[in-house]
Amino acid sequence: MKRMIMMLLVSAAxxxxxxxxTVTNKDADTxxxxxxxxxxxxxxxxxxxxxxxxxxxxxxVTLPNGDRIxxxxxEDVEIQGGSASVK
Length: 87
Hints:
By secondary structure, the chain is α+β, with helices and mostly antiparallel strands. It has one helix and eight strands.
């Protein structure tokens, strides 16, 4: 039984990065996002056409237009015209 529990925990830990959100900048300009995850604040600059993986354990993101969204992980976010659409 202990072995099965350990296998489940290891399996869950290995799949955690797959639950991260991806953000794609479809604008012609670099976009800067402010990401707050587990109380840590970071600014992420996305070049035109680039994609970043963020928020493996959920976070809040402030978009270039000032909107703030909560991400749980697993979302696909596209930035266009300074605003985002979450898929």
